[in-house]
Write a structure and sequence with these properties.
alpha+beta, MutS, DNA mismatch repair protein, domain I, Alpha-Beta Plaits, 4 domains, five-stranded mixed β-sheet, 14 strands, 43% helix, 16% strand, globular, UmuC
Length: 481
């Protein structure tokens, strides 16, 4: 178990020892052991590769030139404001049920928690922990079931606030938002970045009673890191000063680096890297060791080179970059119940597609068995799109189609609903074609495993293409198992 804000007084070693005892002999522990073995294997292979790092002036000059080129692209003229909501799911539950305010609260089930409030964290309770174990740490813990629809509803309110500061805000998750406030600061020269942070924070509290951490900095990453400094309900502003940015990164843990996955974070730690500043100090080794994609991200972060979202991606990210639905199958006792569960899952995903006006071109079907073994089945939904690619942590790597907003090609005159076409190299696909294909693949994968061997099933629609025309939520299509 790793440290999380609010756990400053907790003895993590003791909690981890108790958790190991609690889960001994269970499938949960088996999964932890499998994950550790996989991680150790990759780390061992990487350490062997380190022995092959070239020890020549030519190699070092090549690396230094690469880093110099990255720095040449540094643009510190913009200002970003980042919102990271405090214990989001738990505080929404407190907002809706005032009787549990002031109590230790977690969201999830006896099997697994998805989040916990700050009071419960003082007892060592946190996400990705069995609810039964959490109760042994904190007997007064209130565990609320997850209500994703409600969390999305509240997130809509948050995103309305973000849009007041930046119409092209980026919100990749329900509890986070990034705004480019450069223009609003230019238009309001009497308002400082600190005052802008306080204003956004107060607007969120006034409209939702929720609190958040706020960060302001010259790049999205630095702003995100700043938002975590004074949580809960705090803010931190990092000036556009090279020395201050370097000092900030020198005390920021490598675990805070987003975009590289948990496995590579563990790899960096195994190499003795503690802070983001250490990345630059070990540049020759990392250049040889890491794939180009992760290398670019790491070295830009280490040198405070901002990574800006592409303008064409704002529309998609503002709405949603993935539609993901999952359901626990532990209470399923026959095939019919499994069929009903899959239909509910599918219909929930499709209703979100219609609401968001998007066209999914990639599909991931997630199956989890009772040994916590996760199998992801990936599919392309159009012949011109690539299959989704997942990294070691199960995160989607590629977005094979352009994410810019698009009006459906050849859609004049406009016809709502299932006649909205997307043209591929091969044929014109309607939404109905798309929906039917998703269902066919979902059934094929779902039926390939006995229902009583499935612990959890998930449906993820990815590589979304935005459609500007309005879609008809009353599209009529039948489901056949």
């Amino acid at each position: 178990m790793e440290f999380k804000a609010g756990m400053e007084s907790v003895d993590l070693n003791e909690i981890n020892m108790l958790l190991e005892q609690f889960t001994e002999g269970t499938h949960f522990q088996e999964k932890i052991i499998r994950d550790e073995l996989k991680t150790q294997q990759i780390i061992s292979e990487s350490l062997e590769k380190l022995k092959e790092v070239p020890d020549t002036d030519e190699y070092r000059e090549k690396v230094d030139k690469y880093l110099e080129q990255l720095v040449e692209s540094k643009d510190l003229t913009r200002t970003f404001l980042y919102i990271d909501m405090d214990a989001y799911y738990a505080l929404v539950e407190e907002m809706d049920d005032p009787s549990i305010r002031g109590l230790p609260v977690a969201v999830g089930s006896m099997d697994m928690l998805v989040t916990s409030n700050y009071l419960s964290r003082k007892y060592g309770v946190r996400s990705r922990m069995p609810g039964m174990f959490a109760l042994s740490l904190c007997p007064t813990l209130v565990i609320k079931p997850s209500r994703m629809d409600r969390y999305r509803e509240v997130a809509d309110t948050l995103r309305e606030i973000y849009s007041e500061f930046d119409p092209d805000f980026v919100s990749k998750s329900l509890d986070e938002g990034c705004m480019d406030i450069t223009k609003v600061l230019q238009n309001n020269p009497h308002v400082s970045p600190l005052e802008m942070a306080r204003l956004c924070q107060s607007k969120i509290f006034e409209r939702t009673t929720l609190t958040c951490g706020v960060g302001v900095a010259p790049s999205p990453l630095l702003a995100k890191l700043c938002s975590e400094v004074n949580k809960p309900n705090g803010y931190f502003v990092l000036d556009k000063d090279e020395t201050k940015m370097k000092e900030f990164l020198a005390r920021t843990s490598i675990k805070k680096v987003p975009g590289i996955g948990k496995l590579r974070q563990q790899l960096l730690e195994s190499l003795g890297l503690d802070t983001i500043e250490d990345i630059y100090d070990n540049r020759y080794e990392l250049y040889h060791l890491l794939p180009t994609t992760y290398m670019d991200i790491l070295f830009k972060h280490a040198q405070s080179v901002p990574i800006f979202p592409e303008p064409s991606s704002f529309f998609r990210l503002k709405k949603r970059n993935m539609i993901s639905k999952e359901k626990n199958c532990k209470e399923i006792y026959d095939e019919k119940e499994m069929d009903d569960l899959m239909k509910d899952l599918y219909m929930s995903a499709i209703s979100t597609v219609l609401k968001e006006n998007v066209f999914p071109t990639g599909l991931i079907i997630k199956m989890v068995d009772f040994k916590f073994k996760v199998t992801n089945h990936t599919f392309s939904l159009t012949k011109s799109a690539k299959e989704p690619v997942l990294d070691e942590d199960g995160q989607v790597l590629n977005d094979s189609l352009t994410a810019s907003p698009m009006s459906s090609p050849g859609s004049s005159p406009k016809v709502k609903g299932s006649r909205s076409p997307i043209r591929t190299k091969d044929k014109t696909l309607t939404l109905k074609d798309n929906f039917n294909l998703i269902w066919e693949l979902f059934v094929k994968v779902g039926k390939s495993v006995p229902f009583d061997n499935i612990r959890c099933i998930g449906l993820k629609l990815v590589n979304l293409v935005a459609i500007k025309e309005e879609l008809d939520p009353s599209i009529n299509f039948s489901l056949q198992s």
